[in-house]
Automatic annotation (TrEMBL):
Gene Ontology biological-process annotations: folic acid catabolic process
Family matches, as PANTHER family: PEPTIDASE M20 (PTHR30575), XAA-ARG DIPEPTIDASE (PTHR30575:SF0)
Superkingdom of the organism of origin: Bacteria
Lineage of origin: Bacteria, Pseudomonadati, Pseudomonadota, Alphaproteobacteria, Caulobacterales
InterPro entries: Amidohydrolase, Aminobenzoyl-glu_utiliz_pB, Bact_exopeptidase_dim_dom, Peptidase_M20, Peptidase_M20/M20A_hydrolases, Peptidase_M20_dimer
Name assigned to this protein: Amidohydrolase
């Protein structure tokens, strides 16, 4: 499997932000109508986002969250196809109005385990185990309401084409979109749009890290840990031996590689030799080839650990995603529309909440930054995490944006983010995202030149001989990856 190096490819400067001579901007009256449409739905958008925040459902278990978004979209006139790509909580909402471009919006809605938090500027965990520390409750609601506004604009102006909203579960480790891409659900899409909650407002586009994840399960023999230790073979010993080898491996892997793990099952009682233990690993790097190489080395470490402890092991792959393919042509359009919408203004009460929350942070940038739009940049540094949006970006020209839904200085996947995502601070950022997505999608419907330029850029970046080979392999989605998986 050969992948094209993103950093080795250059694209004409005309693809960068601020040079969008091909873009057909919407008439001012239509822009205003779209913004007004989102604004009229602001209260419902917020109610939907906060309801999903309360559900706090983890990957592939988002039954209430998915149903609520489907309900909103059905009421708005979309046709729903549910249970796509072998995922019960995934869906596609479609509105067709004759022949024309197919524009897709992506909507996520899964929560993270272990991040339960009240809407409070101080840490205050609830009884629930999951929380929206990545703001996907805002993501799903804003994308859906952007789609609703664009549909109405298409009807009012007799715009030809198809608008789709992809309800995509399990972004946090489940690689749902990769299975959708593998199953051909994006084959006829012209452009895909997404957004993500953040601490700033920005249309910058960059690469991410490719990622393969999976669970290493070890099986041993139980015995009394004191009365008959010689008869036992500890599966936990095997997990710990593998982890030790993985940690020594860090010195001898390519720069930029990330290996993370947790022990998800280490036994039940100290006086019982564990006959079962499990660790959950992620491997990341900007180059998918490196990821595949390192995960194979981890399998050898697991094999050695099993041999040394006289246990046996199994590996179950959970996810696998590409690195992001940025698109400068689309960035230009998204950036212009984000500037048109503008930044965020907090009330005195929201500012007071943010100020108190920020006291818990090591970094404390000015709170006023949420009212600003950051300069749009095209980056190839491969920094940050991983996302299954990346797989979409290798087969369809894709663009995203970030809006300030979190308090400046907050870290991703934190209780601080969970608190903000359940507050009016988060909702205000989601409204900015919905307006920007709606304007950008509408503009693309009437600008075949922009779509053509974005498609040409994608083909140049990925290379003429590129063939998509999913890193998730050929198995089904692991619907219980947040459970015990046994």
């Amino acid at each position: 499997m050969k992948f094209t190096s993103l950093t080795a490819i250059t694209v004409a400067l005309s693809c960068l932000a601020g040079t969008s001579a091909w873009a057909a901007e919407l008439p001012a009256a239509q822009q205003s109508a779209i913004i007004d449409s989102v604004e009229r739905g602001r209260e419902h958008l917020g109610a939907t986002a906060l309801a999903i925040w309360e559900f706090a459902e983890v990957g592939y278990q988002e039954t209430q969250s998915s149903a609520l978004l489907q309900q909103d979209l059905t009421a708005a006139g979309f046709t729903i196809t549910a249970g796509i790509a072998g995922q019960p909580t995934a869906f596609v909402a479609s509105f067709k109005n004759g022949k024309g471009p197919v524009i897709a919006l992506l909507a996520e809605f899964d929560a993270l385990p272990g991040l339960s938090q009240a809407v409070s500027p101080v840490e205050q965990s609830l009884h629930a185990i999951a929380g929206h520390g990545c703001g996907h409750n805002l993501f799903g609601a804003a994308s859906s309401h952007a789609a609703i506004a664009v549909r109405q604009w298409m009807i009012d102006n007799n715009i030809k084409g198809e608008l789709r909203l992809y309800g995509t579960p399990a972004e946090e480790g489940g690689s749902a979109k990769a299975f959708m891409v593998r199953d051909g659900l994006f084959n006829d899409v012209d452009v895909a749009l997404h957004w993500h909650p953040a601490t700033v407002n920005s249309a910058s586009q960059g690469t991410t890290k490719a990622n393969v994840s999976g669970k290493f399960r070890f099986y041993g023999t139980s015995s009394h840990a004191s009365g008959a230790p010689d008869r036992g073979r500890s599966a936990l010993d095997a997990v710990e031996a593998m982890n030790a080898m993985a940690n020594m491996m860090r010195e001898h892997i390519p720069d930029g590689t990330r290996i993370h793990y947790v022990i998800t099952d280490g036994g039940e009682a100290p006086n019982v030799v564990p006959n079962y233990a499990e660790s959950y690993y992620y491997v990341r790097h900007g180059d998918p080839e490196v990821v595949l190489s390192v995960i194979e080395r981890l399998k050898k470490a697991a094999e050695g650990a099993a041999l040394g402890t006289e246990t046996r092991y199994e590996f179950q792959q959970i996810g696998g995603v590409y690195s992001m393919m940025p698109n400068g042509a689309l960035m230009s359009v998204m950036d212009r529309n984000l500037h048109r919408v503008g930044g965020i203004t907090w009330t005195p009460e929201e500012t007071a909440f943010a100020s108190k929350l920020q006291q818990t942070l090591a970094s404390q940038p000015p709170l006023s930054s949420v009212g600003e739009i950051q300069p749009a940049k095209l980056s190839f540094d491969g920094a940050g995490g991983s996302t299954d949006v990346s797989d979409v970006s290798w087969v369809v020209p894709t663009v995203g944006l970030a809006t300030a839904t979190f308090v400046p200085g907050s870290a991703g996947h934190s209780w601080q983010n969970t608190a903000a995502a359940g507050s009016s601070i988060g909702v205000k950022g989601a409204v900015v995202a919905a307006k920007t997505l709606a304007l950008t999608a509408a503009e693309l419907f009437v600008s075949p030149e922009t779509i053509a330029a974005a498609t040409t850029e994608l083909h140049e970046r990925r290379g003429a001989d590129f063939v998509y080979r999913p890193l998730v392999g050929d198995g089904p989605p692991q619907l219980n990856y947040r459970g015990d998986g046994k």
